[in-house]
Amino acid sequence: QGHERDKNHIKKELGDCLWMIAEACDALDISMTEVAIMNIIKLKTRFPEGFSKERSLNRDKDDI
User: Where do the structural domains in the chain lie, given as residue ranges?
Assistant: First the structure.
């Protein structure tokens, strides 16, 4: 928000996010690979021709 992007800082923050996701998966006995595959399938279904702002804004109410 008006500041230059600091890639090293962003990498550290993304690492924190990744750590928390790994911890959540471990606590719930869910594979991170399974989560990633499910997300890819969801996005390919939602955006079959690639990302579209229009399709993003006008999704079905049950599309999470």
Answer: 7-57
